[in-house]
Amino acid sequence: MEKAKSIPDKHTIMTEKEKKIVPPGLNSRVAASIIIVFAWLIYAIVHVVFLWERFSTIQNIALLIISFLLGVAILGAMWASWGIKISREYASSEED
Hints:
Blueprint: H1 26-51, H2 57-95
Helix pairs in contact: 1-2
């Protein structure tokens, strides 16, 4: 019995632009982003479950907001530096 042959169509053919390699540093930043998001979620759950009674409600909300903003700042700095570096590389490659 023969295997069915796949017929390429316009929806499955990758263009040259899509075949480009993954930019350096992308994989590690995606992994770090996932880790930071889940670490913050774990912290928030642990804080609410175990530490909520030790502080006033205002202090608890402030701690959660500050920890969230800290995570956003870390992610923003990490992705902004990568974006600037990659945009310079693509700008120089398009000029050639």
